[in-house]
Automatic annotation (TrEMBL), chain A:
<dbReference type="Pfam" id="PF13407">
    <property type="entry name" value="Peripla_BP_4"/>
</dbReference>
<keyword id="KW-0732">Signal</keyword>
<dbReference type="InterPro" id="IPR050555">
    <property type="entry name" value="Bact_Solute-Bind_Prot2"/>
</dbReference>
<dbReference type="InterPro" id="IPR028082">
    <property type="entry name" value="Peripla_BP_I"/>
</dbReference>
<dbReference type="InterPro" id="IPR025997">
    <property type="entry name" value="SBP_2_dom"/>
</dbReference>
<feature type="signal peptide">
    <location>
        <begin position="1"/>
        <end position="30"/>
    </location>
</feature>
<protein>
    <submittedName>
        <fullName>Autoinducer 2 ABC transporter substrate-binding protein</fullName>
    </submittedName>
</protein>
UniProtKB/TrEMBL annotation, chain B:
<keyword id="KW-0472">Membrane</keyword>
<feature type="transmembrane region" description="Helical">
    <location>
        <begin position="294"/>
        <end position="313"/>
    </location>
</feature>
<dbReference type="GO" id="GO:0022857">
    <property type="term" value="F:transmembrane transporter activity"/>
</dbReference>
<feature type="transmembrane region" description="Helical">
    <location>
        <begin position="97"/>
        <end position="118"/>
    </location>
</feature>
<feature type="transmembrane region" description="Helical">
    <location>
        <begin position="165"/>
        <end position="184"/>
    </location>
</feature>
<keyword id="KW-1003">Cell membrane</keyword>
<feature type="transmembrane region" description="Helical">
    <location>
        <begin position="20"/>
        <end position="40"/>
    </location>
</feature>
Automatic annotation (TrEMBL), chain C:
<feature type="transmembrane region" description="Helical">
    <location>
        <begin position="224"/>
        <end position="242"/>
    </location>
</feature>
<keyword id="KW-0813">Transport</keyword>
<keyword id="KW-0812">Transmembrane</keyword>
<dbReference type="InterPro" id="IPR001851">
    <property type="entry name" value="ABC_transp_permease"/>
</dbReference>
<feature type="transmembrane region" description="Helical">
    <location>
        <begin position="301"/>
        <end position="322"/>
    </location>
</feature>
<feature type="transmembrane region" description="Helical">
    <location>
        <begin position="168"/>
        <end position="193"/>
    </location>
</feature>
<keyword id="KW-0997">Cell inner membrane</keyword>
Amino acid sequence: MKRKVVSTMLCAAMAAGLLAGCGSSSSSSAASSSSAASSASAASSSGSAETTETAASSASEAVKSGSTAAAGTADASGHTYAIVTKSAGNPYNEREASGFQDTIEALGGTCIVQNPEQATADAQISVINSLISQKVDSIAVAANDANALSAVLQQAMDAGIKVMTLDSDVEASSRMVFCNQAGVKEVGQALIDAVYDITGGEGEYAILSATSQATNQNSWIDAMKSIAESDDKYSKLVLDEVAYGDDEPQKSTDQTQALLQKYPNLKVICSPTTVGISAAAKVLQDQNSSVKLTGLGLPSEMKEYIGDDDSHSCPYMFLWNPIDLGKLAAYTSVALVSGQITGAEGDTFDAGDMENSPYTVTTNTDGATEIILGPPYKFDSSNIDEWAEVY
Amino acid sequence: MQQKKSLWKRLTGSREASLVLILVALLIVVTILSGGTFLTPSNISQIFRNNALTMLMALGMLCVLLTAGIDISITSILAFSGMTIGLLQKYDILRNTFLLFLIAALIGTGCGLLNGLIISKGKVAPIICTMGGMYIWRGLAYVISNNNWASGADVSGFSDFGKDGSIGPYIILIIAYVVFFIVMKWTTFGRRIYAVGSNAEAAEVSGINVDRIITLVYMIMGLLAGLSGALSVSIYASAQPNMQYGKEMDVIAACVIGGVSMNGGRGSVVGTFLGALFYAIVAKALPLIGLESIWQNLIKGIIVLAVVLLNVLTQRAMDRANLERREL
Amino acid sequence: MAGKSGREINAVPQSSVKQKILSWEGGLVIIFIAVLILGAAISPTYNFSSVFREMPKYLCEIFMMFAMGYILIIAEIDISVGAIVCLAATLGCFAGNAGVPLAGVIAVCIGTGFLAGCLNGVILTHFTELPSMIVTLGTQIIFRGIAEVSLGSGGSVSMSNSKMIMPLATMVGPFPLVFFFVAIAAVIFIFVLSRTTFGRKLYAVGSNHTAAHYAGIPVQKIRMICFVLIGTMAGVCALFYLSTTFGANTTTGQGYEMDVIAMCVFGGIATTGGKGNLIGATIAGFTIVCLRIALGQRNINTQLILVIIGLLLIVSVLIPRISEVLGNRKRRAAQS
């Protein structure tokens, strides 16, 4: 008797769980239900899809044959495009995904936005696996780890899915093209120039980074170091330490305070990460420290700390527009799926109303193909209020 | 039976005293390694401010551990309450610092009450119940945040409370520790918590409502976790759904270092304070003594394990000494 | 009720078919089928091949679930397994990159897990006053710390010769190779637990280790064996993890310990020891895996999936209690 009760209750609980699951899914991912429908309709009306494809391929042939004219933006209808961000619960990722989603939907395609539960490669692998099962047409991923995703992305490409990365790259062989928010060298140059400018050309500076394995931060810091070494102009700048705040407010605060204490002659802290720069800004501003801050940060998070006078800790900082990065990734995905580009160097495609359209695929110093959004954008007291409203 | 003990015996004979010795040794090492600049007033205040959350939650964890329970949902409750009040400010619904703290505390108490009821009335093992809670509250924090943070300008007025130089966090800490010290030492409620932890069946027989005590203990834990959520938003001027992720283990470790037994019935407020302080000093000192960042976690783990093992050894020595005295 | 004396040993095999269907495991089978139906209902792409294609990543964790079942049955806990996976995968990757053949990589992964388990076991059997939770918490930080230090500033390593590890990721028909290893492990672990004296001793230790000690059971030896076992299984998990990712980083295995404990608990193993069996845990493990895959294919918010699993966990442990209360009430009503 007792056991019967147990099993019936278990089933009831299960059913309740399912209801909860279904109920929430209808609101959070309405897109996916329509994705199933649209892929079915795409199959039934393959005629129209074919014509788009042939048109697109002839356009890409035109590009290859030496014509400099940009090809028109391809039609996205009938296809499903997915974006996998670094993690849930982060406004930067959210802006990136919203730019992607709006563009795909404006072009008539179906969009799936997936935010992994944690900022780890593990969580992204599960999500990508599930997207492969859903037979989406393209996956754009902002990689949490340069190595660990290569196996699953290779699987996706074997299944005929167009794979591209944005924001943070993986090995070149496991994706078709990388949408780079700004060239690594340009970011490094901008940051080291900011340090040079704020220190007045000489003095000590320190770097507060995210985690020790953050691919982007590491490459920018390396670029800063190599630029500083190669040019005599920066010879009077001394890098005291690269500290890691792990993108946690508490640890970033501890590390900033430790930097201030360990290096009394410190003039500038450069923090190329959103969490780090706002934690450091708060420490410096609260203490009325003479040490100044620069780096990369979201305007909406940094509004309070940016200003020219001594009561603000950060004279200026840089970032790119994450919404635009998402948009560019969307246009790239569409172009990849339509066959307009293959991710080879020299491919050109039109990106709607975007500033630098048409974009061209280039090759970076490591021989990997990428599309660069543009130079990093400078935020100072004159424009911070305006941009803080946007992202 | 009371006889005059030698100073050495008295120091090694009490857990708190031996912990003080370890702390002093640690401070000396750190001071030497950091070139004599560790114990400055600003450093000391930063130690307390940056670890106020761990210190506050350690008190609740003390009560939970005393009843032979455990609560691993605390940082999820912290994130949920912190995110809620962060969003209240972001969308300009409420700006009153006191009310915000109150709301955070209420949310925490509610979550704690649920934990307590499921554990006491539902007879669910504490680690399982709070593990479920850990997923649920953290998940809800993400869901309500809708991928947004509340930070900087959003919480500008509120963050003055926990600003560097403001005495807000210290006052909360002092009040909490004084209240807990008194309650745990001199009130029947405090005694009852110990009784339940030492032997729940005996406590039940002697007329203590065990279920109620257990429910209350988890409510207190929830209350402190909720308060910590508000405090965290105020100190770091930011509310993010992943805040303090995984830090519940730090809180438990701080308690255990402070001599609180995970089998229930043994532990004190003073010990908890020393344990939390120990943890705080290690966290503050590691970046200061010029250790490379990637080594810091490894060293921290070794220190934690070493102190826990040392605790056992001193406890054994104490037991042996007591036994010898009895035999005399 | 909650006292140690009242704990029953649940290892007695049940005979009647009806009882089997209505037992906890029977309920789990029904839920498992319900999850499969749900998956097919909400996702058009949820089918045999897609589930098995997505499964290897989760199957790695199931290896550890068996050993975690043993650990929970003797009333212990091990939260260092995720960190052991990280360390073993990292060292295995380094070994592969240094030119060691596949057999060597296998040995390094499993050996690392074995040694890590030994360390946990040695500390716990020599400092018996310490709860396993706090010791494995300490070693967890240390194991991950060692991995962090050996990974250096990049924090990530990839298999330079991924072809070498590929044989472990092959598909045998529609089934991934790892599935067969899990099946073999399941048979062995379930057999040892339910049909050997060693298995009985685990229940005895978990129910009351003082009594077990006086009954002549080598309690400390059994604890040691269990912790070495789970370390070794974490090493096996790391090996197959490498075969699905070709690399490791500092976040590898994060949260695995909680996933695995949740599977065991959902499968009816009590964390207070002495209760439950691995058949239930195995079904529960596959149920959670299939549920995650199904919800994932429906693109449900990943955080919401965690909320659902958390609710499932609490509800599943509450049910026996609720049915007990209801049963008591009914009995009382019948008596009056």
